Task: inverse folding
């Protein structure tokens, strides 16, 4: 997963819910040095009895924000959505020679 174009990651999930598996896996895919490189990571864990769906909000370097309902998505779908925009930014960066 391309994370160098992410600036802000906000995730809300119930760690005890089976529907939050994508949220837990997404958090595990963020590299350990992401915060030192400028990424803001905010994880809010809901109580065990909460029925609120898992949610992911991602902000990219170009200002685009993406909100995903993780309770209805598999981790491959989430990665595909995030990587799609990241690849576009990588292509633009490559064309500009940065």
Result:
């Amino acid at each position: 997963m391309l994370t160098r174009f992410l600036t802000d990651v906000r995730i809300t999930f119930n760690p005890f819910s089976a529907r939050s598996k994508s949220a837990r896996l997404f958090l595990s895919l963020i590299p350990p040095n992401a915060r030192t490189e400028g990424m803001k990571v905010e994880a809010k864990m809901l109580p065990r009895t909460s029925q609120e769906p898992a949610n992911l909000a991602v902000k990219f370097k170009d200002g685009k924000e993406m909100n995903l309902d993780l309770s209805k998505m598999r981790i491959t779908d989430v990665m595909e959505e995030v990587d799609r925009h990241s690849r576009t930014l990588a292509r633009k960066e490559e064309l500009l020679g940065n």
User: Anything to note?
Assistant: The mean pLDDT is 92.
